Amino acid sequence: MHQFRNDYSEGAAPAILDALVRTNLEQCVGYGADEHCSRAAELIRAEIGQPDASVTFVPGGTPANILAITSLTEEFEGPLCAADAHPTIHETGAIEAHGRRLLATHDPLGRLTCSGMEPLWAASVANGAATTRPGMLYFSQTSELGYVYTRTEFDALCDWAAERELAVYVDGARMASGCMAAGTDLTIQHIAERADAFTLGGTKNGMLFGEALVVSPRTARGRHAIERLPYLTKRAGQLTAKGRVMGVMYEAAFDPATRDAAGEVLYWQLARHANACAVELARGLADAGYEPLLSTTGNQQFFWATPGEAARLAEGLGCEPMAADDPSGTGRGLVRFVTSWATPQNAVAEAVAFARSVKE
Predict the structure, then answer these.
(1) Which letter, b or e, does each residue of 243-274 get, where b requires 16 or more Cβ atoms within 10 Å of its Cβ?
(2) Same domain for 254 and 272?
């Protein structure tokens, strides 16, 4: 049976694999200085509407977060983030190991809010040099628990940060899913217009691996980060000799020749398919009697399940049980279902039928 464990279990989308095979015997300059990385960066700049943006290709999400955070902040600063943001629970202290302390709020659903950050900011102002100074905002689109930020929410965070001269960084490991979520009004162009930095994730959207770290030169923090990034990338061991591999994949994903009738290049098409499968799956699970954590149109769906249901769902569908505080007080936990660019349409109906069969 098809597995709904994550969005990186498969290899790469066929068009991206074809591009790798087609260019395989080309001899390219190393360390990302090749023509494929250059063209991929130009295609990304054109897609986001920021011709002067810096684009750095990094192998994975954790290194991208390390580089974004360390380049945008000083050694005595740290990022404001939600308590269940990815760096706080799934990166083994990577940010702290690189000299930055995470300043976590009590916001739920991995979602950062201005009200959640205010006490941390006030404490920093009150205590001055005795505490880590906030230097930036970290949040992801979509959030760790599938929340999709609206344009209004995003602008509120950017305004709050600008008033305090803080940088804004959006972890976009699932940026494609967030931007293609049904009903969203937050576009990649608007994110690029306001954020100091963000990533366009490839690992979870049809590539073998890779994240594109985009930094804006509009702000002082952005310009400082761009100046530091080449050195920090090498120091962190993230400058890959065969950087051309990421260049080829991003070049294929953002190739204008792949635009469909909706005007979307391959990168967005892959996420649109994943999201459509996720929404169909969520509808079926709800009809089968499972309660969702929240209503979302991204490719991560979270549902409450009893321990027995969770164990059988994990065994049959590969989905991931998660400990969580059950508001009903009945001892349920969360189960995460994730779709991808490669999820077969018929697998969704099969998954719903299986979930219905194990419902207690």
Answers:
(1) bbbbbbbbbbbbbeeeeeeeebbbbbbbbbbb
(2) no
Residues 294 and 246 in one domain: no
Give the pLDDT of residue 360: 86
Q: Which two tokens stand for residue 109?
A: 């659903």
Flag residues of the chain having pLDDT under 70.
none
Number of domain units in the chain: 2
pLDDT attached to residue 294 = 95
The residues, ordered by sequence, that sit 6+ positions from 217 with a Cβ below 8 Å of its Cβ are 52, 53, 54, 223, 226
Residue 50, CA distances (Å) to 110, 142, 315 in order:
28, 22, 45
pTM for the full predicted model: 0.97
Alpha-carbon Rg of the chain, whole angstroms? 20
Q: Looking at the structure, tell me whether residues 48 and 76 fall in a common domain.
A: yes
Flag whether 4 is in a domain. no
| pLDDT tens track for 213-265 | 999 999 999 999 999 999 999 999 999 999 999 999 999 999 999 999 999 99
Burial group, residue 51, by CB count within 10 angstroms (0-12, 13-18, 19+): exposed
Structural domain boundaries enclosing 137? 14-258
In a domain, 172, yes or no: yes
- pLDDT computed for residue 110 by the predictor: 84
The last residue of a domain, from among 225, 258, 291: 258
180 CB-near residues (< 8 Å, 6+ apart)? 264, 268, 271, 272, 275
